[in-house]
Amino acid sequence: MLIFECPYCGVYADETELQAGGEAHLKRFGPGSDDESFEGYLFMRKNPKGVHLERWRHSFGCGKWFHAARCTMTLEVFGTYSAQTLEPPKALVEKIKAKRPKWSWREFGGAAT
Amino acid sequence: MRRFSAFAIAREATRYHSGWERHWRAPTPKKKYDVIIVGAGGHGLATAWHLGKHYGITNVAIIEKGWLGGGNTGRNTTIIRSNYLQDPSAAIYEKSRSLYETMSQDLNYNVMFSPRGVIMLAQTHHEVRGYQRTAHANALQGVTTEWINPARVKELCPIMNVEGPRYPVLGGLWQARGGTARHDAVAWGYARACSDMGMDVIQQCEVKGVRKSGGKVVGVDTTKGAIDCDKLGMVVAGHASTLAEMAGFRLPMESVALQALVSEPIKPCMDIVVMANTVHGYLSQSDKGEMVIGGGTDGFNNYTQRGSFHHIEETVRALNETFPILSRLKMLRQWGGIVDVTGDRSPILSKTPVEGVFVNCGWGTGGFKAIPGSGFAMAELIAKGGSPLTNEFSMYRFREGKFIDESVAAGVAH
């Protein structure tokens, strides 16, 4: 069972206490954007075999959304962080890179998805 | 290839069964093929077989990272039905169900297709309305289904408790010609028939890259070296987005784990398939006597091919109320498969931005029942560049807003 530390209330929460919310750090493309960006925002998702940054909600706890870095191959959880940010914290990125040297997070403000 | 027959059994019985042949060859890859199919699961092998059977294309390689039929083909709960709401889905799934009826003869391989009937239980009033609507839609599509009342459900499945306080059975959508088949045999039968047509089934050969020239595919790099091809079919379920990335495009799908479990074998007690979508429980009894139980998917991206324990608990707890007989059964095995789920829970059979590359994925939690139909349609798509069965399942339908929304129609289950 996955266990995450909720960055808001500090509880170590089991998977059953949480709800998965999909890929984190999506950039919104609304009315006026071109078709491809809009499609990307709505439907195209990263589906990595490896490190994935995603949204989770502590729904049977404090109710807050937060972000987590998790490996989809091993289910290892690298850490959790606040949802009030547009990029993962540097310390977490370095922690992941120490274990997965080839991994890199997309450049800030980069591609649509 | 020596054909299987009653005569062959008698012949081999007189000589200590020494004359049975290997079902398929284990060739080394050639330098070039007309078509390479990536993924030797049911869908990939069915695609190759239909290419040879209907279009005479036999210079084909089917390459597989692991072993033949070792992915979702060997991990599902073998349910076959075609009672879908949307027309494009009903068309391809009904084609598929009808092909299952003659598959053993077509392949000369006993796939143990058992049209024992499938009930989709309605346990909430929403489901009652939903399935009555599906029954009407099926009547228009030419798919034989029928809405039945709780008394008829009880008659078809006496071990069911239809008066449960929490999830009473309010009726069901009955498809008498649905059923099950032996999933391994489907893969093995296709592989044997493909090998017999001169196709190469190459196992333990992982694709590492897709080679392109001027926007057109020219071959693949594999762990057994580079292989050239004119056309490439990607039929790899959960790993479709990984492979698409190699070819340089993206797919609107995510991979999640779906799990199933089986009980110890017991005497025959249920001769139909029951799907209870409200509680995420799918139940049938195998020929060995095991109760085969399908569960729900995890909510997060996952490539680990194993399920979560809390889902077993949820599935079994809910089924226990509807099937009290299960409560004392021991469960023998539990496993997971990685299914590829799209935004509208319908598959993608499509051309791609790379010329010569075709993709067949997104069957999500319901791929097994679609194997022959998917292969039939995919072969037409590869050979002729389009098929009436696949036109609606284009990967560009999301951009156009032309969804085939089975997540609304079927709830979660396929």
Keyphrases for this structure?
heterodimer; A: about 110 residues; alpha+beta; 6 strands; B: about 425 residues; alpha/beta; FAD/NAD(P)-binding domain; D-Amino Acid Oxidase, Chain A, domain 2; 8-stranded mixed beta sheet; 18 strands
Short description:
The complex is a heterodimer of chains A (113) and B (414). With 113 residues, chain A is of the alpha+beta class.
Count all strands of chain B and give the number. Answer: 18
Question: What is the C-level CATH assignment of the largest domain in chain B?
Answer: Alpha Beta
User: What percent of the residues of chain B sit in helical stretches (DSSP H or I)?
Assistant: 25-40%
Rough outline of chain A? globular
Radius of gyration based on Cα positions of chain A: 15 Å
Please give a structural write-up.
The complex is a heterodimer of chains A (about 110) and B (about 425). Chain A is an alpha+beta fold and about 110 residues long. Chain A has one domain (about 5-25, about 45-100): Folate-binding superfamily (Folate-binding fold). Chain A contains 2 helices and 6 strands; from the N terminus they run βββαβββα. The longest helix of chain A has 10 residues, at about 90-100. With about 425 residues, chain B is an alpha/beta fold. Chain B is about 30% helix and about 25% strand. Chain B contains 11 helices and 18 strands. Chain B has helices spanning about 5-15, 40-55, 85-105, 125-140, 150-155, 185-195, 240-245, 310-320, 370-385, 395-400, 405-410; strands at about 30-40, 60-65, 80, 120, 145-150, 170-175, 180, 200, 205-215, 215-220, 225-235, 255-265, 275, 280-285, 290-300, 330-340, 350, 355-360. The radius of gyration of chain B is 21 Å and the shape is globular. In chain B, about 55% of the residues are buried.
